Amino acid sequence: MKNNNSHENNSQATMIRGSAWMTFGSIVSRILGAIYIIPWYAWMGSDGNLANALTAKSYNIYSLFLIVSTAGIPGAVAKQVAKYNALNEYGIGRKLFRRGLFLMIIFGVISAAIMYLGSPFYAGGDKRQIPILHSLSYAVLIIPILSIMRGYFQGYADMMPSAMSQFIEQLARVIWMLLTAYVIMQVQHGSYLKAVIQSNLAAAIGAAFGILLLVWFLFKRRSYLNSLVAHSNNQIKISTSSLFKEIIEQAIPFIIIDAGIIFYQLIDQYTFHPMLAKFVHASSDQIESWYALFGLNANKVIMIIVSVSTAMAVTAIPLLSGAHARKDYHDIASQLENTIELFFFVMLPASLGMAAISTPVYTIFYGYDPLGSSVLYLSSFTAICLGSFTVLMAMLQGLSENGLAIKYLIFGLIIKFIVQLPMIRIFKIYGPLIATNISMLFVIWLCLKHLHTQYHYNNDRAARRFAGTAVFSVIMFLIVTIVTKFAGKIFSPQTRFGAIILVIIGVAVGAIFYIFMTLKTSLAQKILGNKVEAIARKLHINI
Fold this sequence. Notes:
mainly alpha
């Protein structure tokens, strides 16, 4: 029993440490990816929303190609490397990485060529998107290499190199975007389309810097990795063809599942304009501007908090895969509990907090816009569904329940298709978000029900801690809403300076309340581990 508890504590520590690194990489990258929009959007002038609409539509297509070009292989390699590492077969893990890297180079070349040559078709009649898609195809060429290198480190539950590469990749990307946008729009007084093209080329620039950093990490860890390979059991013999087969079999579900949120966004991209045009009288550019409000503007901001779930998902897959390979069902149940509890502990207050300060946040990024702020408000709640979907799909993948995950995803997309038109008819611009929430809630319910039935994790414990998290998050939401409303009488949310002050006040009040209450009631200690008690003592919070 002592060994089980020790292993459970180690697993929880590994989960939290890995999540911390991946959360750092994801959140900092998302923050950089959101902050740049403030000057970038301003430099676009009156064409800001049109520029964002073009970027959003091109990025949805690019994201799908990126997932196909990587073929799910980085996630599959991370999962399989973790599996063989758990069996002390580090040599096979290295072999998997090398074979996977070869596949990535081939898939990258093929996918980039198809995307470049097929751009006129994917643009859907909008010629402005063609050169943007061309610029993004260069990223499709090299990002598969970056992705599989990250997957290799993640298979060792070593999340720091991946996190740092995310940061460097985004930093280089943002610098290129801002530099070129400033020169084109402010110095040369050029076309916003030319600036958008260069801003999308930045994805390839950033990826190149990310690869260079990971090569350095591989070189730095060479002795340690060689030692693990040298001391492997070497009891399992597997041929190159078998490795390729194993990679591909694991990769195909990853393609479909990883593209899940992209499929939802593509449904919005290709249905919002024609469906809304049936019910409102507005120009084509006006509808495109409305699409930008949720398709990019709000989405860019909420993805900062959704990235938390992505980080946890990446951490959960190799840990669950390792436990599954050992047939350690006690550890699987423990991992499920830890991941679910940790996710909601962070995601609920972050999402509700974002909703409470949605108006000043939107003003900071895009200028004061009541409609845009309302879209961000609803999107903040949608973030909970997006994050839950991401984490639960990752859990099923880590447990080799790929077929079931695909089945649930298809169910969700069918529901999205069915309710999309009536939701747009009733709620107009809010319709796509409501349709997404309805369909994802159905998928989330199916996943939770299956995981509890199949792996018997402590649902009562998870429910109690979820209830505590939800209560404190809702109270925090109400407090922050009231505080920012009264503070808004002094600092106007319609100006960037006033909005910044309101966000600082709202975040400070919300964070202080949530941290104090979760430490005071020991909720934080139960979810994050006993090390948090030291924080409580330093803050003189008596339990």
